[in-house]
Specification:
The structure holds 2 protein chains of 2 kinds. By secondary structure, chain A is an alpha/beta fold. Chain A has helices at 59-66, 89-96, 114-124, 131-144, 160-172, 190-207, 218-224, 242-246, 251-257; strands spanning 2-3, 19-30, 33-44, 48-52, 74-79, 82-83, 99-102, 178-182, 210-215, 227-232, 235-240. The two termini of chain A are 17 Å apart. Chain B has one domain. The chains are: A alpha/beta, B mainly alpha. Chain A binds chain B through residues 64, 67, 69, 89, 93-94, 96-97, 99, 101, 103-110, 120-121, 124-125, and chain B through 104-105, 108-110, 112-120.
């Protein structure tokens, strides 16, 4: 286990040790409530970093800052070699095509079928494809999550686990280099939660993406994490592998693994 | 709140004129907003014309001017009752629906999802809905006025006999430019007000289902008040410039 000032090296291939996300000195407050306070972390290429922390500590705020949904008050957030705090709207849109985001609530568009939900990001990013090519891409994304048969269903007809899978398929359809998962197993039963965690690992291996996973579901953390960052009091309290942190004697760390 | 709404309106104009234009979504909204409101607007318009005629008749009979009934009903419907009542029904149906829809999209992070998909949610959701509401309400008012006059024709024929041609000739002969033009112009303003208030309430609704309900409710209440204020202003302005 290492502290915030000593970013650890994971067991990934040394050739892939290019940080795809580099965050330093990030501060974010809402009124008097300081959520992120001089926070820093890195994500290397091909790495799955789980950000662990108690509810309300600012985990979701962090990934919303990374994708530009919230603006950090200060600090640097460099994603795929671009400082997102200085990007204009068009550059940010281009960046967002390379960064997928899986929302905690799935955020499927209620008024659209599964097919239209998946087509939406393709059309928005001006991907020039024929009808047949778009259909093939939609089908491939749904097959990846085992839900090809739901293509013409409405989101309201799907179960919680199916909605999560469809949301994951929508996130994957643009083949992003980075995926940000906001509590991917929250609200799911343990079996479905495990299936989603396994799916995240499978898809990460298949598409060689890098990920930040926000979670406090320790089963999901154990299955998915190549590195864990513990967010506490707005800071990167410590980081390390699951095995290293689970052996920690620090009560603040230990409480998550008991 | 006025400041927020003014900034929101400013943003509407700023984004509305800038490409890319969301034409497909705008046309979809025109269809949804117009189509969804037509049965209710038609039904209330018909009843309104019928009831207004039945209520006016005794007074006109007392003054011995029963023959003026089609003209009076026509002017009342076209100048004031048609646009205002239709706009109030529109506010109840479309204002609340826009407020609730956007509020629910906000709560379930669909607006954020749109943004990370590379879509400007303000342009896609707000600009299209406000423009559709602004353009569809005048169309609905014209239809509602026509249906109201049919109701009025039926109302006239309950106690007396008037031909369809004679009734409508009397209505049209008594309508002046000053009756039709300001009434038509204000329907665009009513539609714009309903659209922008509904979108503002939904887009900035606070989190949670309670917030969605509050957004829908306050969209209707505020839109209704603003409709009356616009009506008052338009009457004053048209009076001042002499087209009333």
């Amino acid at each position: 286990m290492e502290t915030a000032t000593q970013h650890i090296t994971t067991k990934s291939d040394p050739a892939e040790q290019t940080p795809v996300i580099f965050i330093e000195h990030v501060c974010k407050r809402f009124g008097d409530n300081v959520v992120l306070n001089d926070f820093g972390m890195t994500v290397e290429k091909g790495e799955n970093v789980v950000v662990l922390g108690r509810s309300g500590v600012g985990k979701s705020v962090l990934i919303k800052c990374i994708v530009g949904l919230l603006k950090a008050d200060s600090g640097n957030i460099v994603v795929l070699d671009k400082d997102i705090t200085s990007l204009d709207h068009d550059e940010m849109d281009k960046m967002r095509a390379r960064v997928g985001f899986l929302f905690q609530s799935n955020a499927l568009y209620d008024s659209m079928t599964v097919r239209k939900n998946l087509e939406f990001p393709l059309r928005r990013h001006w991907i020039e494809s024929s009808r047949d090519e778009i259909d093939a891409m939609v089908l491939e994304a749904l097959e990846n999550v085992g839900l090809a048969h739901t293509i013409d269903m409405m989101p309201e007809e799907l179960s919680g686990g199916m909605k999560k899978r469809v949301a994951l398929a929508r996130t994957l359809i643009l083949k992003p280099e980075i995926i940000l998962y906001d509590e991917p197993t929250t609200g799911l039963d343990p079996v479905t939660g495990k299936e989603i965690s396994m799916l995240i690992v499978e898809l990460q291996a298949k598409y060689r993406t890098s990920s930040i996973i926000i979670s406090h579901d320790m089963h999901c953390v154990k299955l998915t994490a190549s590195k864990i960052v513990l967010l506490m009091d707005g800071k990167n309290y410590c980081s390390g592998t699951y095995e290293a942190l689970s052996r920690s004697t620090d009560p603040a760390v230990k409480q998550f693994f008991e | 709140m006025t400041g927020d709404l003014s900034r929101f309106t400013g943003r509407f104009f700023a984004y509305g004129i800038k490409p890319r234009y969301e034409l497909a979504e705008f046309l979809r909204q025109c269809y949804m907003i117009g189509n969804r409101s037509l049965p209710l607007v038609g039904l209330t318009g018909f009843i309104m014309g019928l009831v207004l005629t039945m209520q006016l008749r005794p007074s006109l009979v007392d003054y011995g001017v029963e023959s003026q009934l089609p003209a009076m009903v026509g002017i009342a419907i076209v100048r004031e009752i048609g646009p205002v009542i239709t706009a109030l029904i529109f506010a109840g149906k479309i204002g609340s629906s826009i407020g609730a829809e956007l509020g629910s999209m906000k709560v379930t992070e669909q607006i954020d999802a749109m943004e990370v998909s590379g879509t400007n949610p303000f342009k896609y959701l707000v600009v299209t809905r406000v423009m559709a509401a602004t353009l569809m309400l005048p169309v609905l008012v014209v239809l509602s006025d026509g249906i109201s006059l049919l109701g009025a024709f039926l109302g006239v024929n309950i106690r007396s006999v008037t031909s369809f041609t004679l009734f409508f000739r009397q209505v049209i002969d008594n309508l002046a430019f000053g009756d039709v033009f300001p009434a038509f112009i204000k329907t665009f303003l009513f539609g714009f007000a309903v659209g922008i208030i509904g979108c503002h309430k939904g887009y900035y609704s606070s989190k949670g289902t309670e917030g969605v309900g509050r957004a829908a409710n306050s969209a209707v209440v505020l839109s209704s008040i603003v409709i009356f204020i616009i009506d008052l202003i338009v009457v004053q302005v048209t009076d001042l410039i002499g087209i009333n």
